[in-house]
Design goal:
The protein is of the alpha+beta class. About 5% of the residues have low confidence. It starts with a strand and ends with a strand. The longest helix has 18 residues. A hairpin with a 5-residue loop joins strand 5 and strand 6. Helix content is about 15%, strand content about 30%. The strands form five sheets. It has a five-stranded antiparallel β-sheet, with no helix packed on it. The chain has a three-stranded antiparallel β-sheet with strand order 4-5-6, with no helix packed on it. The protein has a two-stranded antiparallel sheet with strand order 1-2.
Amino acid sequence: MCAVRQGGVARGQEPVDREGRHTIFRPQQFCDRHRNGELGPLKKSGVGWVSWTGVPVESSKVIEARHKFGTPDCGWEVFTAGQMDTAIAAAQAICAEYAIEDILGHDDIAPGRKSDPGPAWDMATFKAKVKGEPEDGDAVMTVNSPNGLNIRSGAGAAFPAVREILHDGTKVLMHEASGRWRYVSVLDASGQPDFSGWVHGDWLVQA
C-alpha cells in the first residue's frame, strides 16, 4: 500500500506482499487505494467546502457529483495529474510483477460503507492506462437546444434545477440513463467535470 501526495510523490506504507491497514493483497487482485487524503464526501460551507473532519477545501479543487453507489450529490476533491501519473506507474509495476487481472476501488469492495476513490477519480481511464488498453470511458455529448437545457436534481421535470440553464453547445459527460433522462457531468473550459445533474436526453447529441 502507498499514499500518493498531490504533487505526485508516493510514500510506501506496507510491502505489497503484506497485509496493511485497509488493504489486503490477494492473488489476481489489486485493490486501488491511491486516494487524495482521507477527505471523502465534502459538504458546502460558505463559499467553499469542508470535509467530515473539518478540513476546508477550495471550491476550485472540488467537483459536485453523485457517487456511483447512490451517495447524494456532494463535493469531491479532485485528483492532480501528478497523482494519476504516479498511481498508474505504481499499478503497472505491481500488475506486471504479480499478474494482476483486475483493479478495484475501496468503494467496490465495501459499497455503501466506503466511498473512495469516488467520482473525482476516473477509474475507467486509470485501468485502461495501467493495462495499455483503449480508453472507452463515458460518452461526451453536446447540448443541442437554442433555448438552453435545464439540469435537474432528479430524472424528471418535477425535480428542481440544480444550476442555471445549460447553454446550447455545452459539453457534458454522460454517466447513466433513466428512461429518456441522462445523468451527466457538465464539463468546464478545460474539459474537466464541474457539476452534475439530470437532463433530458432528447436535447443531447454526440460531441
